[in-house]
């Protein structure tokens, strides 16, 4: 037996035994186990011995052998955690007001920050879903016409092939052209005017990554008359039928076949469309001239994109774009048009003329980001401030716990649990606030943000990290504060204790000033933006836009029947006047004709924006003539040879009187010039938004009705719906396969200021948040200070101080802080708002009362906040405060 | 009532330790009990009782030599203390008194 080879028992069992066994027993029991094991091995082999060994170890796992200290982590901490949660709950209910304010303030801060981050996240993700978005560029046009420089988002049809041949490094040079056309499903006669219809080159889907549900991306637009629909559009026209191979009729004359269906276009895409048809189809819809190489350097405007895979190539091409026009276009064209490269992902942040989707200014995003983080920082510091001032009241409790044997670890654990309970509630509340406010935020901003959106995981991670750090800080401050004092002082409490926790006074005052600066700046900004919007609203545009209905014509047959239809419209009761015009401000561009003004011994040539109108236009719009007369049918010649200039044009040509002034306009009607005299000067009127200066404009009667693209109908105010339905009936009786569309001119004007009105709303939202948080911060500080001065105030009261004296004493310091904040905020806001107003050619001057008003509101809120706490202090029975020591 | 109270298993273990005078360590006690009483005892239950008896003062223990068989671990030898001896005697006497008190007719 003694000679037997030593075998090893199952190591895991042995290790387990060694771990749980009491240290004083390990050695001899293990010896016994081994001896028995070896004995069993010698008797019956390893298998039985192992089984025996394991069974013995299991039987050893019993009270008396187990070292229970090894398991203390399970028992004790569970118990303590439960206790701590209970303490936290008691604390919360004991100081309900404090808890509500503190949690609410933090939740508002977190929620505001989250909403803004969601928004910014969405904005920054624009167009990122395409494959290699950083290598896609758009080619934009800088158009210089007679010194008026405009940066256009689009280029012209011949640019794309030219780029492709000059720069072979480019891949997928692609154009698209958006058009509003009528679309009909011949099977069920469903007819709509479609505003988001693209005509695109066949490589459109090679360049842009839209997900195909049906069809093959690379081949979808290969054939002329092929069309690709979004899923929603396909369902609109074909219900649940398979749309592939079905046909649609465009403009009543062009049949196209569905070759593909794509998923809904992501909300964060600069390209938004319902249909894409193959480019050659445009010839049938608009006529052969649309892609004619000679004419097409002016029209139609086409968005031009290319992929340049190599970054170095892209930089080189960008630097050569300046000379591109000079080297490749005729000298006259090169003088007018130069081209620039714009990265795809910048489209959403640059405001160019002719962009289909409104841009977001990236400086606004950075301002919002800064505001969001400042609000979060303030909310967090407030929270900690409040917790700190609260913790002073709890020194005695903590001291007592220490006396009763709580270690540092226990105190810290208790404070941590409490702090995290608060934070957890605040987070839950913040999420509820976000869920509740997000729909209205989406409505204001025109977005579809969701808290569960893509790529929001790092927002969640960030939130948890911030809360984690806060929870820790929030526990460590009171913890350190209490451990700085001798236990005996802590329990005795009293003045010496509270007065020694100042230190951070400067920081706290700084916080208050800082918070109110932000609040005041936001308030002034809100007021100023709203003032400017009101100014815009009330501005005399030089024409009466209210009650004017615009009906886009889009059809030759109506244009040909123009007179008849106009007469019929006039028979509708409520219609006071009907006219027509070529373009309106929301159209992408105006007619421009080379115009020579001559007479009075001079002759000036210039490229002028031209409005082609019907005779009654000036009367219908109720525009004011400054000199001469307006167009009139009584002068039979007005239709062919009369011109009216606006004041800006009169100034440009330095016109003092109309005597003998003649105008020669190049190539208006199929290459022929239109020649005539200036019959009047019309008061300046706004064709574009108030961001733009007044531009020189010439009006003339359209020589052919082909130019008249919009009816202008002035209505009476009383029964709009009735009038509209009657006008629509007239329309439908004239033309059956063109849907009736209309909009109101004043509403169209308001849309120019969408960005500004959004800004006003979001700033007022932030101003409210900033005030809530600043007021809470101040409330905390007052609570803290009045706690410190409780005895002083009580003695004052005994000596005869009134309620107002005491409130005055308490608020004096804060009023000073708020005044400092207002003094700092005012110049900041002044600079910022002046810069913002510079965007407008027509703008208000900053009003002094805005600053005074913002200051007064701020002061009122501050004093109100202080008074609430001051009242509490002042109304306490002084005896209660003085007797205890 | 006596101040010594031994459970049945405690008594058996105590007696076995006494039998193995000077040689009473874990495995030896187990072997002795198995052979004499034909009773399967686990190391765990034995060791628990030994500790309990030691704590009560009936046993004392000290480390002895180690062997290769034991993986180099020393044996713990147990010895019955004076107090333990008294307890054993007392228990035996109590039993004897009980035996003596039984009427002859009862166990026939």
In short:
The complex is a heterodimer of chains A (885) and B (108). By secondary structure, chain A is α+β, with helices and mostly antiparallel strands.
Which structural class should the secondary elements of chain B be placed in? alpha+beta
The CATH class of chain B is: Mainly Alpha
Order of helices and strands of chain B: HHHEEH
Radius of gyration over C-alpha positions of chain A, nearest whole angstrom = 39 Å
Approximately how much helix is present in the residues of chain A? 40-55%
- Provide the domain count of chain A: 4
Largest sheet of chain B: 2 strands, antiparallel
Number of domains of chain B: 1
The CATH topology label of chain B is Arc Repressor Mutant, subunit A
Query: How much strand content do the residues of chain B show?
Result: 5-15%
The averaged pLDDT of chain A comes out at 83
What amount of the residues of chain A lies in strands? 15-25%
Distance between the termini of chain A: 83 Å
Major pleated sheet of chain A: 6 strands, mixed, barrel
User: Total strand count of chain B, please?
Assistant: 2
Global morphology of chain A: globular
Q: Helix- and strand-based class of chain A?
A: alpha+beta
Quick one: how many beta strands of chain A?
A: 22
**Overall form of chain B:** elongated
